[in-house]
Amino acid sequence: MKLKVVSWERKRFRSPSLERPVANFFTMRTVTWEDGKVKMIDQTALPLKLSHVFFTKPEEVANAIRTMVVRGAPAIGVAAAMGLALSAHRSKAAKLPELLHDMESSAGLLRSTRPTAVNLFWGIDRVMNKVREAKTVREAKELVEAEVKAMEEEDVQTNRRLGKIGAELIDDGDTVLTQCNAGALATVGYGTALGVIRAAVEQGKLVKVLVPETRPALQGARLTAFELAQDGIDCTLISDTAVGHMISIGRVDKVVVGADRITNDGYVFNKIGTYQEAVLASRHGVPFFPAAPHSTFDLSRGHDSVTIEERSADEVVKISGKRIAPKGVPVANPAFDMTPPELVTGIISDRGLLQPPLAESIQRLIS
Amino acid sequence: MKLKVVSWERKRFRSPSLERPVANFFTMRTVTWEDGKVKMIDQTALPLKLSHVFFTKPEEVANAIRTMVVRGAPAIGVAAAMGLALSAHRSKAAKLPELLHDMESSAGLLRSTRPTAVNLFWGIDRVMNKVREAKTVREAKELVEAEVKAMEEEDVQTNRRLGKIGAELIDDGDTVLTQCNAGALATVGYGTALGVIRAAVEQGKLVKVLVPETRPALQGARLTAFELAQDGIDCTLISDTAVGHMISIGRVDKVVVGADRITNDGYVFNKIGTYQEAVLASRHGVPFFPAAPHSTFDLSRGHDSVTIEERSADEVVKISGKRIAPKGVPVANPAFDMTPPELVTGIISDRGLLQPPLAESIQRLIS
Questions:
Q1: In a domain, B191, yes or no
Q2: What ipTM does the predicted assembly reach?
Q3: How many folded domains does chain B comprise?
Q4: Which of B14, B192, B224, B291 could crosslink B181 through cysteines, CB 3.0-4.6 Å?
């Protein structure tokens, strides 16, 4: 893994909320295929340092996914696909079955990194299905590389489509509550929930964003606030404890969040803390919209069989390496939660707005 | 201010949840009157260091309240009273009106430290009412000192009474969700919400406590987890984002929290994040009990005129002195929120369990 620090001081101190933003958004790609290497923004270093890392081995990409150098369901879908492409690219296989064997082995490793976001499995399956069309090793390698490049481009186009559809739901002057980071940094670019906000701003609407810091990994404070400040979009950071209060005093007009997996019965799995936002929004009559590309829908299962990842206690008891709790205290650290369809006003997808009953809309629009 | 580090290594690594606790609880006093000085545990240093600070001037006590060296509604009520006693103790006044003038001036300073917890004003008023009974300067100083010593003792006795009343609501095997720290460290000793848990444990019940870290000031992670670990009471720390998920999967049997002010119409003001716990508990049929001594009830007003303190943005954007968000990002940091009576199953007080309709119970039991 090589590390390259990007100079960004010029943009760094751009103050949010001082100007009406124009359509000049965060254009860096979170993950990209570059000359047989995978290039990523190192999200663990944000917001203090914007740097890129380069990977040449699938194991490095697997590790980057596990340690959240790259995170966000759509981004890890593309990253995993590119990890698999590295496997093909590096393979010394002389014959197709050997190449497939190498790739299957890497696919297994990549699949084991994180259990909840379905895009991870979608990305891997898509590359594996493509490579099976090849007749020769050379053709296979070309097909795989072309496929991951296409996935990278499609991701941004998908989010722009999704953003435009979602922006219709946002009114001029709205304050939108989000959760975690479902922005450019959670995708190749543009973002899902934040893509909706960017598209609304591109339509000339004034939008304010309320950003919960999203403990334990602080993606709201570290990533969403960073992205929005870079783009000059008005945002206010709050503790996760303040979500209910802010909704109850009328400071939230809409909730727009991302998703890691949406099952065929309309249940939305997303970053821990999403469920309580949905419950509070519902209590106060605030519309609640998950935003997700078609690759986030899991048509193969209902909500009962989804695994919610439990992550390390260290994420909770240490912040920036400093201990904030007594040694040895037991910790529960579920990384995701589940929002039932009755709390969902609609799901914003690149194929249209899915309205209740969600199970039926999912069948109609996504299948 | 003098600082004294207490040796506590012997107790420090006592592991939680390994043994059934006996009635051998955290006996240190959070705030105490000692030979004309106010002695406090420095709560900003916990859980990494258990140390005491000594104050001789009312301004030092005011600063300690403002900076949360001491926090928790009952504790700051007693601390403010003792700050006022320092004013009397140090006064060079030869005549009673001069002494009263000195004390009124200190009272004004102490009243300005934090706006939400009503115990602060209760503690100050109680001392000012007492001093007005005196006929001489000497008698005044004696009355004041006796009064704050009595308040210190009463606080612990009040919490023990409250704890016993609340413990009746806790079943053997219950998991109790709390918020912030309403423990020994939020009072002179024993605690309110954690007093209920201690009393239940004293009754021989096995109780587990689910502790949200309670951002921004992390009183759950720093103080509640520390207290419970010291006492060997089984606790599990979670991020504030995990509250809804844990309730929804059936991991919570009761919610017991403290309170900073309860108005005559039954609204409960408490640490930010309490309201969302109440909403989630209600949705899932989990009983929700604030626990508070009679000094936390504000009979003079309804909920409309209570000020919710807005604290520094630094509490949100820096943790242990390290920045976790981009520079310049706007922050909202309300320190408290309001839970309406319809979400409250009952209020545990030292004068009995207040049941709905709360406005009537408050009139009957507290007035």
A1: yes
A2: 0.93
A3: 2
A4: B224
- 10 Å Cβ neighbour count for B206? 14
Chain centroid to CA A331: how far?
A: 25
- Per-residue pLDDT tens over the stretch A66-124: 999 999 999 999 999 999 999 999 999 999 999 999 999 999 999 999 999 999 999 99
- Asked if B241's CB is within 8 angstroms of A272's CB, the reply is yes
User: What pLDDT does A8 receive?
Assistant: 34
A349 lies in some domain: yes
Residue A3 pLDDT more than 90? no
Residue B326 included in any domain: yes
Q: Are residues A44 and A137 in the same domain?
A: yes
Closest Cα in chain B to A334: B242
pLDDT of residue A113: 98
CATH code for position A320: 3.40.50.10470
The residues near B127 (Cβ < 8 Å, ≥ 6 apart) are: B81, B84, B85, B103, B107, B144, B147, B148
- Is B273 touching A (CB cutoff 8 A)? yes
Task: Write the CA distances from A72 to A68, A120, A184, B276, B310, integer angstroms.
Answer: 9, 10, 9, 26, 32
pLDDT tens string A299-321: 999 999 999 999 999 999 999 99
Collect the ranges in chain B with pLDDT lower than 50: 1-23
Residue B198 shares a structural domain with residue B340:
yes
Q: Strand order in A37-41's β-sheet?
A: A2-5, A51-55, A37-41, A31-34
In terms of domains, do A135 and A53 share one?
yes
Residue B329 has its nearest CB partner, among A16, A241, A243, at A16
- Domain check: are A217 and A329 in the same one? yes
| Interface contact A45, partner B, CB < 8 A | no
Q: Which residues pair with B32 in a beta bridge?
A: B39
- Which positions 243-272 of A are in contact with B (Cβ < 8 Å)? 243-246, 248, 271-272
Tell me which of A102, A155, A260, A350 is the catalytic residue.
Answer: A260
A238-261 residue pLDDT tens: 999 999 999 999 999 999 999 999
Say whether both A295 and A317 belong to one domain.
yes
CB-based contact B16 A48, cutoff 8 Å: no
Q: Are residues B208 and B76 in the same domain?
A: no
User: From the CA of B227, how many Å to the nearest CA of chain A?
Assistant: 10
Write out the residue range of the structural domain in which residue B48 sits: 31-158
Does residue A14 register a pLDDT over 60?
Answer: no
Q: Determine how many CB atoms are found less than 10 A away from the CB of residue A17.
A: 17
What per-residue confidence (pLDDT) applies to A24? 59
Judgement on whether residues A64 and A195 belong to the same structural domain of the protein: no
Alpha carbons B25 and B290: distance in angstroms, whole number:
22
